[in-house]
Amino acid sequence: MYKIFTFVSWLLVLAIYVVSTAEAHKHRSSGERQHKNLQPRQTIARITDDITIALGVGFGNMILIEGDDGLIVVDTLKNRFEARVAYRLLTRNTNKTLKAIILTHFHLDHIGGADGLKEEFGDSATRIFAHHSMEFERSRYARVSSFYTSRIAYQFGKDPFKYCADDLRPCLDTATVTDSVSDNDIVNIAGLKVQFIHMIGETNDHLSIWIPSKKALLVGDNVYNSFPNICTLRGAPTRDANAWYHSLSRMRKFRPTYLIFSHGVPLQGVEKVDAALVIYRDGIQYVHDQTVRLMNHGLPLSQIVEKVKLPTHLKTSKMLLEKYGAVEWSVRGVYDHYNGWFEGEVEQMYPLSKPKLAEFIQELIAADYSGSVYDKMLDHADLAWSKSHRHFQTTSTLLADQLKWGIYLCSLASELGESQEPSKRKKLDDIEMKLTESMVQLNRGNMIAYNFYSTHMHFKGVGPVATILNPVQHFPLNQAFEVLPYRFKAEICEPYLIMKLLLWDQFSPGQWNGYILRNCVIEHVTDPDEDHFDHVINLSSSEFRQIFSKNANPNMLSISDENLAALTRFLSFID
User: Which terminus of the chain faces fewer neighbouring Cβ atoms within 10 Å, N or C?
Assistant: First the structure.
């Protein structure tokens, strides 16, 4: 009788599963179904006796943690349909009640099924946890949700929310948070100690979940099997790459046995997990630090994008393959994070509209001309100034579009080889000077525009217009220590070189700074363990400033020959 009952029960479960899966599958876009690079086929993976993951039901994972007297779900997929399928698959061998839902961050593919899951499988006592800043992130998204939706469709290949159009109930962002948590909050849920760690990365509200009894760290979208989406094309504020790799350093301190993602297959084994976290953090840090370094060298964004490429040993790592995020987008994102949209070129202040630019380009191409392309561009730039000047003589108003077009042409011409010939360069400078003078006149009412055009006109080609200070020499000491990694010379990197230097000041108790050179980055460690460093070097604060700003020779230091050799070599990698 028992066998018959069991057989019938399994048939019932199978029938529910088939119907629910079909329903969920219907509500998934083809683009999501094509994301095999990040998300495996639909399956259930048992990580420990008490932690199970539903993979492939939606674009992300649903994670089930079984406590002594109840269940905890981490992330609930995009909608109630996917959530229902995943939850039934995960709970087919238990009858414990749903005690809590934990949301790692505000993205819809993580929170969309939360309320539906609670209504169908929980009760009024079921708690929904999220970081306290989630409400801010959700509100910001809602303000421009229509804009984002069309971009999301491009990123994932199809209308992502078509299923929602005919639903009379709210079906987007349906997560009623009952418990807002902060960094390092510890809560006992279903008999388990659960620690919430705020780790900024893919979002600013991002939580990692640490289950100490299981040695399991649930990291949401802060780690997955691809170079990360530091700058996502679907539209979002650029992610803080600096904060992201520091979050990964913090993950390492937990020494987890299990690293569980919200997208993709988890990792198991302390050493394997640590190696993955190291390569992931170092890949992010490399792109961040080299972008910042070249910004400080004064390079324009276009050149920075060309120069910042992952070293081969990082680029070929399975954790950093560009299957989702991309290095080039990330370089642009880091630049934007620190600088915004304006790259410092005068033609960008008031750019021509795309239709107007197309009109001018059409005229330029159609015009008969027997000279070089360089001369043709400059002659048309001069013609643009003349049109504006003649208009001013008769109407007392300048033609802004003509001046913008002329400056744009001068900017393009300056990138051509002929611009390096003295006579050709003088022609360019003379025409650009006339155009810039007119733009100064046109923008007298705006102090910033006036100053930019005036400064460009007077200092063009003569180098920096301001004194550039060395931050190691002139910034507060804590900032001087912090900025050192951003001066690493990646072009002379030795990929597998590892150096570990610990600098301390005997006259300043507690002033310890560790530097680990690894994977073509320098990790700055502010709470170093002396036993983990190969060289411990005593440097006073003034000696640190002089040596690392290259104003003094390290031979002046009273340190061992071994430490001197290590410090000298380390310094060779610093700008």
Answer: N
